[in-house]
# Entry
Amino acid sequence: MKAPVSWIREYVDLPADVSVEDLAARLTALGLKLEALEKPGADVTGPLVVGRVLTMDPEPQKNGKTINWCTVDVGAANGTGQPQGIVCGAHNFAPGDLVVVVLPGGVLPGGFEISERKTYGHLSAGMICSAKELGLGDDHSGIIVLPADAGEPGDSVREYLLLDDDVIEFEINPDRAYALSLRGVSREAALATGAMFTDPAARNVPAPNGEGYPVEIDDLEGCPVFVARTVSGFDPTASTPRWMARRIQLAGMRPISLAVDVTNYVMLEMGHPIHGYDADKLQGTVRVRRATPGEKLTTLDDVERTLDAGDLVVVDDSGPIGLGGVMGGATTEMSDATTNIMVEVASWDPVSMFRTGKRHKLSSEAGKRNERGVDPTIPEAAADRVVELLVEHGGGTAGPGVTKVGTAPTSPVVTIPASLPARITGMDIEPATVIENLTAIGCNVDGDETLVVVPPPWRRDISDPFDLVEEVARIVGYENVPSVLPPAPAGRGLTQGQQLRRRVGRTLAGAGYVEVLTFPFVGPEAFDTLELGADDVRRTALRLANPLSAEAPLMTTTLLPGVLETLARNVGRGTTDVAIFEAATVTLPHVGIASPILPVDRRPTEGEWDDLNKALPDQPLHLALALTGDRDPAGWWGGGRPVSWSDPIETVREVAAALGVEVEIRTGSAQPWHPGRCAEVFAGGRSLGHAGELHPRVCKALGVPARTAVAEIDLSALLELAVAVAPAPEFSTFPVAKEDVALQVAVEVASEDVAATLREGAGPLCESVRLFDVYTGEQVGAGQKSLAFALRFRAPDRTLTEAETGEARAAAVALAAERHGAVQR
Amino acid sequence: MSGPNSSYDPVQVTPLGEEQVFAMRDEALAAIEAAADLEALKQVRSDHAGDRSPLGLANREIGALPPQARKDVGMRVGQARGAVNQALAARQEVLEEAAEEQMLLTETVDVTLPWDRRSRGARHPITTMSERIADTFVAMGWEVAEGPLVEAEWLNFDALNLGADHPARTMQDTFWTEPAENHVVLRTHTSPVQARTMLTRTPPIYVVCPGRVFRTDEYDATHSPMFHQVEGLVIDEGITMAHLKGSLDHFAQATFGEGITTRFRPSYFPFTEPSAEVDLICFVCRGSGLNETGDATCRTCRGEGWIEWGGCGVVNPRVLVACGVDPERYTGFAFGMGIDRTLMFRHGVEDLRSFFEGDVRFSRAFGTEI
# Structure
């Protein structure tokens, strides 16, 4: 809402010592937030005067244009009293006309400095201005031709043009619909300054009679009040007075024609939307009803709309002629030939307005006010004001008939203990202050300890005691709320899950990974690129009804598209060695039930609470890793170590170890991994995910470097397995016996399986089995590999003999031979 | 037959006379002094202190001397050998020291060689900021509550006094999921966690909930369809706006430094009444609106002296009722701030997209704690 301060002053006698900045600050403190302070006219400086065109010589130019070489009488404003020579490109004037002249030294909006300059073979000393050049609107069709009473040549024209004003733009919250008008803003300005307020809606209006335009309301809930007035013999060529056009413009709307401008002006003034009809186009009784489904209406914006049974429509014998309270219809629109006008000022049900606006995606100045709720007691005043202005500026006669159908709904009665504002705000607020402040905003207040409050009709937002608390608090001043720490009981700190998630992040950062956060939106193509199978569960994704991009309508089921895109971006920006991780939830929908919309006047039952939660998709936390380039950079110490399939596997093990979880790595097979370089991670008897090298085809398709390595695991599941309290280890201090074993097996045999067998075969004396070398080559022959393990033996109670270790080692080798065909080398 | 040599020949022992022994000693000492390195000293040791050295041979001959000569000669030779051995040890020490020094010298490296042998990891500043905020409140005895990102419409809106026809629903442009009749949304704020907390815990409730939220905002330097909020909720007996102000002032100081306070401006949120916007006194210019030298406007607050930080208010009793809290007994307050926004002005991040592009250079600058 933009409010010209000159307009506010019309209703409030602002104290002289209150500056515009001060007023804006005080209103902000009251809840009308300053959005911007504009000083229109401030960007026009220097001599701007009335000039009389003395001579005007058209001179055709080579470029096809014709310019006018003019001499203009600017009185003594140019210091010489001699006519000023000015080149002008416009043609909508004639010698003798009064025009607006900016003389050399002046500056126009945009920092456009005026000086004497040679142009078209003349010395042009100044400029004859159009409205647009002065920042007075969009009209660039020609220069401004002033009426005879605008002043004498040489007189300053600023005041006449209403160039200078201050405009405060407010951000109006949905609960302060009354402030979407000068009436409301001025009322608050009076409250802020203690000045007197004159209500523009307080008018003596003619009583309703039976002679007005016939109106009937079928749906009094949707439209409780409809006031109609008429004006006949209106002059459609009459122009809007400058002050009205200027105010409409300063308030952020566009002047259109007198009849339309008057309805907009009164809406801005009083806050009540108004609609004007060309009365000659109306056929019979005007009626308000709900639309018949499928009914058609072409609205003022030339869009044909198919109506819904919930829409309120204004109809006449021809059918729908307006979408009530939101937008008028094209068939009865006022035009430049309209001489008879019917003025409608009707109250509408805000909920219905909101729904209709949303349904038809229609946002209008009228709809914005109607859906927030306007004062239902002022339609007669608003209609009377419109008629007054139409007649005053457009001639014609006010029709004697005054139609009023329906009655304004009454305000609710709110009961509030006088102590409540103090109890809720923590400020010392005496009951007398409560009564005084509520009265100041227009409430009717009765009682002393318990107050019976009737809010004013323009405050349709007030329905609860706490609404009144806010009203009192904002007038007492939020700056007076004391600062006191609440006495919280001893808390339990972070949960184990919260602590562990931090530990995972720190572990990964310590391992050289950088955390990234990616958007969860993907398209089905992302799954195709990962070569997910047709029946892969990751293809079952939750779909958004209104995605930002049609290409990414799904909530992702895997973090891989996001981290790989991020990896590619880093590589593209020249970071060739990248190790990143993301820990975020994915969305895994299940065949769901609908989430109920429950009542809000009570707590949900346990069953309802279950239903609410059951309707939601599973949202487990996943961890994704992606690496490329060198894992250990090259340097003066030697060559770098390129990222390999083993890095993400190792990192998963590291994360698990940080959580005290033992994971088992098995040969895996999953998209989008390299079929021969994919590990499946198990813990607690279940699969947690996969790690290894990205499939070369997928690397290519995603534009990430070859050999990029990735992992994705279910972090929620891993966290569940975390050891809360680690038991102290028991270990022997007797000497260790070391034995190395080299075993030859087929290449397909997983080393982890052989290690497990050795562990089992070696028995309880075996402390650890560690693979320290893998060899493939001539010495073992094709299809074979040699695995070298270091075995450590130790007893808890004695030093082992060579015979004991030898026996355990032999048993281990024997079992490996039996299970895996291993041959000792 | 053993026993003293009976055929003592004084001529034979002449070489063991005082002069000769001293000469041997002095020769040895001079050789020791002249030994330039440990290798040379080793040779000197063998030449002058070994079994076959003159003194070594002399020592052997002592036994062959008649008893009356043995004492004198023995003492003389013994003293001479002692002096030589002492000198050897001393020289050995000196040469060893020198050798070590030399070794250390040759081992000198250029310690300014660039290192970075392992690339540095980092956590995301939004993660670490969320943790920092959580820690501030946990230190006051509050707890950290969480909830799902894909949320029930009822919890995201209705339970928070945002009925289907509430004009404020359009204030938060919502991502809806299909099918529409399932009434499931991407949460538009962390406030449904408030509702969940009230429905699953009994007062007193003191919780803070940092988390990810979604709105259908086009992605640009100041808007993102995904961003992060932190929500605070307190439900207890006798809670007032003063407690809200106290908590936020503490939060402001913990995040921006000593003496940083907040101010309230009346505002509107359906879930709170009274409602307020929270402004933070600019932590750079401390409210003056001017830069350090006082000749231009402060860049952080753009000359306002205050920074818009978030929204807050007293929990609307309608919300308490829907969430099963007795509004006659309990009151509460809630607040919400943007974590991304807080980071932007705390650290001078110019473009919101920096958080989501995942350029490793960005996160690395913030390290692992913030």
Observations:
- Chain B is about 40% helix and 20% strand.
- The first strand of chain B starts at residue 143 and ends at 144.
- The beta strands of chain B are 143-144, 150-152, 184-186, 205-214, 226-236, 262-269, 272-281, 306-315, 331-338.
- The CA atoms of residues 81 and 148 of chain B lie 91 Å apart.
